[in-house]
Amino acid sequence: MTDFAPLLQPDRAGSAHAIHLVDKASFAGWLKKQSPARRMLVEVARFEGKTAFQFIVLPTGQGQEWDVVSAVANIAELSPWCLARLAEALPEGSYRLAEGDPGPAMLGWLLGQHRFNDYRSKVEDQRGARVLLTKEAAEIERAVRLADATCLVRDLVDTPAADMGPAELEAAARDLAKAFGAKVEVTAGDALAQGYPMIAAVGQGATRERAPRLIELNWGKDSAPRVAIVGKGVCFDSGGLDIKPASGMRLMKKDMGGAAHALALARLIMAEKLPVRLHLLIPAVENSVSAASYRPGDVLRSRKGLKVEIDNTDAEGRLVLGDALAKAGEGEPALIIDFATLTGAARVALGPDLPAMFANGDDLAASLETAAREVSDPIWRMPLWDGYDEMLKSDLADMVNSADSPMAGAVTAALFLRRFVPEGTSWAHFDTFAWRPSAKPGRPKGGDAMGLRTVFAMLRQQYSV
Fold first, then answer.
1. Residue 465 has what pLDDT?
2. From residue 216, how far is each of 167, 184, 303, 389 by CA, in Å?
3. Percentage of the residues of the chain whose pLDDT score is greater than 70
4. What are the DSSP calls for 236-247, one per residue?
5. How far apart are CA 323 and CA 303, in angstroms?
6. What is the mean predicted confidence (pLDDT) over 349-376?
7. Apex CA 135: angle with CA 107 and CA 274, to 5°?
8. Which residues contact 378 (CB under 8 A, 6 or more apart)?
9. Nearest-angstrom CA–CA distance, 417 and 137
10. CA neighbor of 273 nearest in space, from 459, 9, 3, 450
11. Which family is annotated (predicted)?
């Protein structure tokens, strides 16, 4: 993982290239103050200060010195990404804003310099560090923590499935526990089959080396309010016997994106020392095709005791989450949050950038929506529409795992999960893509954290030290 700490430093008035930020409203005034030579260079470059992420390097007239002028959407409200393009493109050196402080833009400065190069024989970008100096010294550590957590999600999701199975997710949880003094418990084999039968069933078609398991991490004081974080850890999803087509299977290494988000959120909670009793749960499986795979028409027993008829083996994520949510609820938590790359229906409805958020309480939903706006990490609330519960009726068992109707797929998946959450327990479910299909400044194509900063900001506000 990239070492972000050296890339943000307190500004002690050392030598650095100035970064001038302009927007559509301020550009003309800034240009008027420049020398004729600089104005000519701006005109030749056709830099108009209107297009966000556009920038130009200009000589200062003092020897070989130069500074940078960059367009942003709004100088008054800097986004986390407005400096990301500069961090990607500028040469090695030290930089500072000519006016003001970077604030949330520190995150993009860091992430713009992250590369996942584990599978490249030659690293293309050999430049040294681009260091941003800031007077906000107290915020540097938090920005680094957010960047570390974001890149934990990215790196885990980007890792090919051959190298990121249930055992590797367990290793990631153990590494996290070791770093923060947490405890890890793993349930596998016969104990998994007896205690978490739906997790065991989904993973039973995999090889012994990729056997299913439930990974749990506990941290914090017993007297603190318990917060349970659950992440879908399907390390590869073939669809099972209801096998996916090749086009649908190509990105299924990312089906453990919910687990990656859960691990990253746990990291932030422990690094920030939030006064909570953290309970992290990751049902880690591979949904494979073999003679041992569970079948359409099977009826599975769940940890909660509900019997689930299998309509579609490709609707496996909600099964493993159901058992994990049931276990989370047994600890009587004040709050349960789950992350999952759960449905294509959510992507059809909201596209790749917006995680679908479901919450069983308006106050919880409102606090998450407020946090999303404050940290520029968008989410969109979707309804837990009671009227669609009937789509989960089974002629044989207590419920089916997948509705017959092609409509409201994200909603019915969330309603399925709600059956496993104790009544009266606050719960939010994030159906997130965990993948960026095209690059943006600070956000390369590939795995990405979506909704992570929103949930952490909400938790910080609710459980502030």
1. 60
2. 13, 6, 16, 30
3. 99
4. EE--TTSPPPHH
5. 5
6. 98
7. 55
8. 353, 354, 355, 372
9. 43
10. 459
11. Belongs to the peptidase M17 family.
Structure token pair of residue 244: 């996916």
pLDDT-derived band at 64, boundaries 50, 70, 90: confident
Write the pLDDT tens digit of every residue in 200-220: 999 999 999 999 999 999 999
CB 427 within 8 A of CB 335: yes
User: In degrees, to the nearest 5, what angle opens at C-alpha 260 toward C-alphas 255 and 264?
Assistant: 165
Residues in the chain, overall count = 465
Closest CA to 180 of 269, 260, 258: 269
Say what the pLDDT of residue 255 is: 98
**E strand residue ranges, 72-220:** 93-97, 130-134, 183-188, 213-219
Q: How far apart are the first and last CA of the chain?
A: 28
Active site residues: 244, 318
Query: What does the domain layout of the chain look like in residue ranges?
Result: 5-113, 146-462
Place of tokens 């073999």: 290
Look at residues 262, 231, 227 and name the one whose alpha carbon lies nearest to residue 425: 227
DSSP state of 371: H
* DSSP helix/strand/coil, 282: strand
pLDDT at 272: 96
Q: Using the CB atoms, write b or e for 414-425: b if 16+ within 10 Å.
A: bbbbbbbbbeeb
Average pLDDT across the chain, whole number: 96
**Mean pLDDT across the stretch 292-306?**
98
**pLDDT tens digits for 97-108?**
999 999 999 999
Whether 146-462 and 5-113 are alike in CATH topology: the answer is no
Q: Where are the alpha helices (DSSP H) in 159-256?
A: 166-180, 189-195, 197-203, 246-249
> For residue range 15-42, what is the model confidence (pLDDT) as tens digits?
999 999 999 999 999 999 999 999 999 9
The CATH-assigned architecture of domain 5-113 is 3-Layer(aba) Sandwich (3.40)
Q: Which two tokens stand for residue 409?
A: 């797929």
95 and 68 Cβ atoms separated by less than 8 Å: yes
Those residues with Cβ within 8 angstroms of residue 65's Cβ, 6 or more apart along the chain or in another chain: 17, 59
Sheet holding 55-59, edge to edge: 8-10, 130-134, 93-97, 17-22, 66-71, 55-59
pLDDT band, very low/low/confident/very high, at 435 (cuts 50, 70, 90): very high
- Quickly name the fold that domain 146-462 has: Aminopeptidase (3.40.630)
DSSP characters for 426-447? EEEEEE---EESS-BTTB-SEE
